[in-house]
Amino acid sequence: MFQQLVGKLPVGICVVDENYNIVFLNDFFIDRMESDHRSDYTDKPISELFPEQAKFLRRRIKSVFVLQHPSFSYWEQRPHIFPFKSSRPITGEETQMYQNMEIVPITSPEHGKLACIFLQDVTAQASYFIAQQELSLALKREHEEQLKLIKKLDSAQSQLIQAEKMASTGQLAAGIAHEINNPIGFVTANLNTLKDYTESLISICESVAEKAAQTDEKCQIFINDLLESNHFELLKEDMTPLLNESREGLERVRDIVENLKRFAIEESSGWQLMDLSETMLQMIELVSVQYKIPTYKLSCQPECVKIFCEPGGLKQALMNMLINAAQSIDKKGIVKVNVTANEQSVQIKIIDSGSGIEEHIIKKVFDPFFTTKPEGLGQGLGLSVAYTAIEKHQGTISVSSKPGVGSVFEVNLPVIDPEEE
Amino acid sequence: MSSTISLNEDQRDALQELMNISMGQAANSLAHLIETKIGISIPKISAVTPSELFSLINRSENAYYTRQSFLGDIQGEVMAVVSESGLTEVASLLEYEAPLSKSDVEETILELSNILAGACLAGLSNQLQLATNLNMPTLFSPNKASFVELNWQHSLVMEVQFDIELSSFSMRVVFCLDRTSLIKLTDTIDELLG
After folding, report:
1. CA dihedral B187, B192, B193, B194 (to 10 degrees)
2. Contact with chain B for residue A71, Cβ under 8 A
3. N or C, where is chain A less crowded by C-beta within 10 Å?
4. Domain A2-121, CATH number (from 3.30.450.20, 3.40.640.10, 3.30.750.24, 3.30.565.10)
5. Structure pTM?
6. From the CA of A92, how many Å to the nearest CA of chain B?
């Protein structure tokens, strides 16, 4: 009965002696072996019957004989010790049987010390486990992608908010610029009138002083005292320059406001002809108000370059690059803008003698949300916005830089014919 | 039923001595198999709560963890904490060829734990004439398996450290017994002590 039982057990049983020769195999093993080995296996070395994992088997059997203590092998580490086919040759996806193995020491009066290999078919469990693992991996990947998407959405939202802020700031600036223009207008007019009046007043006073000598002594003393106590000589010298300086100051205010207005009220009505040299000049003036340290230079070849473009985007792009250049200079330095144009293309180079960009990050500078500025000070959008805008103009943008020496940003734009657009 | 576990001094001494012998046998077995010298620490015996056990196990960084249950006259689990360093040397002593694959590393760890845990358990069982059977060892990660939710209050643990002279390798084996097994163990020790 026991022999039948052992034969029918759903577990593989293989017994080997101390010379690694096979003493017994149950049906589980025999059914799965090559047919020519089936009848003739006793006393054959296990390495001959199962050469695939012979080394491993020998090692484990040795350990069992030496230590007289069971040894285990798990399918996850070593799935196929014996070259047996899957228990589901038709419907299963796996072709080989996944196996758990346990080798235990036993003894028999006939053979002395023996090692008994128990082999369990765990294909179903293993494939279920593997499927689960794949599933959880897929879920994890999906989850990560979603997290990335959420982050992107968050960023897009903050980008939108920023854009909104910029737009409203622009509108506000335009409104204020308009409001400032009115008082500037009448203050300038008044100053001009005031200058005329002042000149008249001064000449009146001078005539009076001149004529004083011809009057009587009392009157003469009165006039001289009056002029002296009011520091007439000083007034006469100071008044004109004071008025002139004030007028110059007002002119500067008017220029700034004008620049701001022109820049802020962006007629975002699409493509139009833009005077690039004029725009760069305005831009430099605007930037230099905020970043006073660098010396700014502009060269245009030819002197007037007009391009057909979308002014809003292009200006924003160039402005971002110019601000970056200005910000890279913290002590003394130059920001230079070179514009050159021929019939086919326009090249804009923005050169600075600032801190430069480290080599390992230079590839990332156009990436959205990449910034070297401290948190809260930069969103890492400037250059990526520039990149997108330049791309929209079918142009290219590139950068070369040396840390400690400076950076050159080069924009190449093809000349686009308004007729074609 | 009181939830605390107590051993009197005689029981503790006896158990300590038994462990010493078992661990010595375990070290010998391993030394014999891989043909190198092995050092063992003096076994530490204590009663722990789940969270104490967790901190006992989860003490080392860069380590692998295995667990292996045993059944029979006494029941419990053996946990092993295997150091990452020196593992390559030990694997080569076990005839694995470098470079080691992930499976090779895992198999080495499982085999080492099995050898040491098996030898310890066999030593203890033999001396006390108890029948025990060790099950298959598995890898686990104590970080994921926080012990707080386990449904026991106290367990007896016996801890010992093995070092292999040739390399920086070391390994801690922690035996845990459940309450019933502890009573069985102390009864057997009392019988032995007469």
Report:
1. 90
2. yes
3. N
4. 3.30.450.20
5. 0.58
6. 24
